[in-house]
Design brief:
It holds the Pfam family Transketolase_C. The protein is of the alpha/beta class. The chain folds into four domains: 239 residues, Thiamin diphosphate (ThDP)-binding fold, Pyr/PP domains (Rossmann fold), CATH 3.40.50; 80 residues, no CATH class; 195 residues, Rossmann fold; 133 residues, Rossmann fold. 41% of the residues lie in helices and 12% in strands. Strands 13-12-14-15-17-16-22 form a seven-stranded mixed sheet, with helices on both faces. Strands 2-1-3-4-8-7 form a six-stranded parallel sheet, sandwiched between helices. A five-stranded mixed sheet has the order 19-21-20-23-24, sandwiched between helices. Helix 6 links the parallel strand 3 and strand 4. Helix 5 crosses helix 17, helix 11 runs antiparallel to helix 12 and helix 13 runs antiparallel to helix 14. The longest helix is centred in the middle third of the chain and has 45 residues. It is globular and about 110 Å long. It starts with 12 loop residues before the first helix and ends in a 9-residue tail after the last helix. The N terminus is likely disordered.
Length: 810
């Protein structure tokens, strides 16, 4: 083998031989897992399968340079790599294929993700961090093509941050910043914007990142030449190649997927550049084969030519590896030494097949036992009811005809039986009902737990500390409150950092970070390029490595660029790992009512609907915003905090306990008491609602004004229902479009809080027009609810009740 760019040591031929044959054995095991996995799907034991066959050799090479503390952010083809670093076993591979809900048997996602989605567990059972430097780490995979890339940037940047940032416990996350972040992506997915945005940012930031591109010539059925401007991604990336002594760009290495020694050399070089020079590297792995096609959903014979299929069978990586092993010889002390005979390799092949079959059988039997146990318990309680009810007898008969029983079949039988026997009162039925409730509780936990943290650090556990004011408390601009609070935050939390467009040198466009870069340095208070998706990705990745990142998205409208990552990645981290990983990043943004189509939109309904799993906080003032930052920095959950863009120059009294006071999430505030109608709103609209409430008082209507403060979680104490119980009328006022956030708030109040039973009038929502806001103050007035709109529409409720007392306005 050629010399490498990393330090090497002399090993004996026997050790070399053992290493080669171990790699061959692992490659064969992985291939057999792919073959058998496909058969398990096609015979109906699993719903879907997607496998890593054809990519075994480059993943074995990648595993060779993957160290403790390193992270991978990849996609669903990397089973060989996961096997090589002991992140998956044969049994856990098949447990995931069957969607086994046991964390012990399927530690990556407890059956919540389809197969091929890998993750290591970063957290202990209580939600505390493990020592991530003592293990090899895989950040939980997601399916959206290139969606894994932005997070990769943050995982890599964390190493650079840890070179200068230390705090109590930081030794659990990094050893002097020497860790590398490895990314994997399919060749066709490099057509996605997330790939280019991430690579561009990595080249600018110079972070230790290695991206492997598995190039098999197709994106499902579409050939490479139809995917990008150039068929050869290395050629397209040539402008990214760094120049000598230049602190920009990346290294680009191209290597064939079937060339074992060249792959070892390529990854050794890549590791050197990334780990020791902090240079990003792209490894373009060409001539990758995909023996079973894209997935179990179709056959690649439909779109690949006979010549291509013949070439793939000839250049299969494991076949070429076998040929290389058989051809290898070396003379040692006059003797010709060989790695293995054909008989030895055939024996390894046979052993691999048996190991995989045994592992699959064990995984299936254990998984099936969880279902047969439920089935046995249910039938034991249902059988006594069949003699009392003919329908139940028929239910059992039909159930027994089901060939492959799943949990849903058992639950359907129980629920059918309970519905059919609803008029029956008997110990047998009571026993069945109790069993159903017991089983349902378990399955609710299996399928619906950990959307939010279940640890002691969950956001709702953070104790409220009220702002303290004294005679010496100053009246200052709102931006000064948030700036001075950030100053206290960065002093208190060495692991806290903020980054975004204009966040560093000029202290953000509204001066909420004024002077802080000079005080805390450009690592912790940093500018970024205009690239919102990867700003979010930086936050996710760094939060996964124990830092406390605040990712600034300059305006609320711009958060739409982040919404895919927020929805598919950040919001689901705790859920899709069943509490195995977390990413408590704070997304700082500003918005609500201002000027123009692109700077005053309120896409809150989209954020609410697509980001369940993230706390959505909408403070009405900069003091409230500061309190939310103080709260969320004590939590292990992610949050979006929307500062009021029109509040930076408004005067607020600055609390004396900056950096300490907290605003509880999920708690509303009654800002004005009233007895006739409850007005519910949030954010900048609160000021206008308060103005409208004063006008309503002049016409004899006493309005209670409520600021929800926190949209997710929403009013956990159901205080709004108590207000409606007093006033018997409800109006929800929102600057989002019709059926947007107002619909969510109304659903929470009427359905969750059961406030409908207290209403004497139809509930009313007052929202914005369905278009984006037009420009200037008149645009705001006619596009979003004005105080005049609110007064008139609320007055109409009372006109309907008592037209004599409240005569019609028009």
């Amino acid at each position: 083998m050629q010399s490498t760019y990393i330090e090497t040591q002399q090993i004996s031929f026997q050790d070399f031989k053992s290493s080669i044959l171990d790699d061959y054995r692992l490659g064969r095991i992985s291939r057999e897992m792919s073959y058998l996995g496909r058969r398990e799907v096609l015979t109906g034991k699993a719903k879907f399968g997607i496998f890593g066959d054809g990519k075994e050799l480059p993943q074995l090479a990648m595993a060779k340079v993957f160290r403790n503390g390193d992270f991978r952010s990849g996609y669903y083809r990397d089973q060989t790599f996961a096997l090589a670093i002991d992140a998956v076993s044969i049994e856990s591979f098949f447990a995931q294929l069957y969607a086994d809900t046991s964390v012990e048997r399927e530690p990556a996602s407890a059956g919540r993700q389809m197969n091929g989605h890998y993750a290591t567990r970063s957290l202990n059972a209580d939600g505390s961090w493990k020592d991530l430097t003592a293990q090899k780490n895989i950040s939980s995979d997601i399916s959206p093509t290139a969606g894994q890339m932005p997070r990769l940037l943050g995982l890599a940047q964390a190493s650079k941050v840890y070179k200068s940032v230390k705090f109590d416990g930081s030794e659990k996350f990094s050893k002097e910043g020497n860790e590398v972040a490895f990314g994997t992506i399919g060749d066709a997915s490099t057509a996605e914007g997330h790939f280019w945005e991430t690579l561009n940012a990595a080249c600018a930031l110079q972070v230790p990142m290695i991206v492997s591109i598995w190039d098999d010539g197709y994106g499902i059925s579409v050939p490479t030449q139809n995917q990008r401007a150039k068929a050869d991604i290395s050629e397209m990336l040539s402008g990214f190649q760094r120049k000598t002594d230049e602190k920009q760009g990346c290294e680009i290495i191209q290597v064939k997927a079937w060339d074992y020694p060249a792959l070892m050399e390529a990854y050794a070089k890549a590791e050197h550049f990334a780990r020791y020079e902090s240079v990003p590297v792209v490894i373009h792995v060409t001539e990758v084969t995909q023996p079973q096609g894209h997935s179990t959903s179709g056959s690649h014979e439909r779109y690949k030519s006979e010549d291509r299929l013949h070439w793939e069978s000839e250049f299969d990586g494991l076949i070429k590896f076998k040929e290389w092993i058989l051809d290898y010889s070396i003379e040692i002390e006059g003797n010709e030494e060989y790695l293995a005979s054909i008989e030895e390799l055939d024996l390894i092949d046979a052993e691999a097949k048996k190991l995989v079959k045994d592992g699959q059988k064990k995984a299936w039997e254990v998984y099936q036992k969880t279902i047969t146990d439920i089935k046995r318990e249910a039938l034991l309680l249902i059988e006594p009811l069949k003699n009392q009810n003919t329908e139940v007898f028929n239910f059992i008969e039909n159930f027994n005809k089901v060939i492959s029983v799943s949990k849903k079949d058992v639950f359907h039988l129980i629920r059918q039986t309970l519905l059919s026997t609803r008029a029956q009162v008997s110990p047998e039925r009571n026993a069945l009902k109790a069993k159903y409730e017991e089983l349902l509780k378990v399955e609710k936990d299996n399928y619906s737990s950990h959307l939010y943290s279940q640890s002691q650090w969950k956001a709702t556990n953070v104790k409220e500390i009220k702002p303290i004011y004294s005679e010496s408390s100053e009246e200052v601009d709102g931006r000064v409150v948030v700036r001075n609070n950030f100053d206290k935050i960065f002093e208190k939390y060495p692991q806290a950092l903020v980054f975004g467009e204009d966040a560093g040198n000029i202290g953000d466009v509204n001066q909420g970070l004024e002077g802080l870069q000079e005080k805390y340095g450009d690592v912790r208070i940093a500018d970024t390029g205009i690239r919102e998706a990867t700003i979010l990705g930086q936050g996710i990745g760094m939060a996964m490595r124990g830092l406390k990142p605040i990712a600034e998205i300059q305006y609320l409208d711009y958060i739409l660029y982040c919404l895919q990552g927020m929805s598919d990645d950040l919001a689901t981290v705790q859920y899709r790992t069943r509490g195995g990983q977390k990413a408590p990043v704070i997304i700082r943004t500003r918005g609500h009512r201002l000027e123009g189509v692109w700077h005053s939109g309120s896409p809150m309904a989209g954020i609410l609907n697509l980001s369940k799993g993230i706390n959505i906080l909408v403070p009405r003032s900069l003091t409230k915003a500061a309190g939310f930052y103080n709260t969320m920095l004590q939590s292990d959950e992610p949050a979006v905090i929307v500062e009021c863009l029109n509040g930076y120059r408004l005067k607020e009294k600055q609390p004396d306990n900056l950096g300490e006071f907290t605003i509880p999430v999920g708690k509303i505030e009654v800002t004005k008491e009233g007895k006739d109608v409850t007005l519910v709103t949030y954010g900048s609209t609160w000021r206008i609602v308060s103005e409208a409430a004063k006008e309503l008082e002049k016409v004899g209507i006493s309005a209670e004004v409520i600021d929800v403060q926190s949209l997710i979680p929403f009013d956990l104490s159901h205080e709004i229902a108590e207000s409606v119980k007093k006033t018997n009328r409800l109006v929800v006022i929102d600057e989002d479009v019709e059926g947007g956030t107002s619909a969510f708030i109304l659903q929470q109040i009427l359905e969750k809080q059961k406030a409908f039973k207290f209403l004497d009038s139809e509930p009313l929502t007052i929202s914005a027009e369905n278009h984006r806001p037009a420009f200037a103050s008149d645009g705001d007035y006619f596009s979003k609810p004005s105080a005049d709109d609110m007064v008139e529409k609320i007055y109409t409720i009372f006109n309907e009740i008592n037209p004599q007392k409240y005569p019609a306005i028009y």
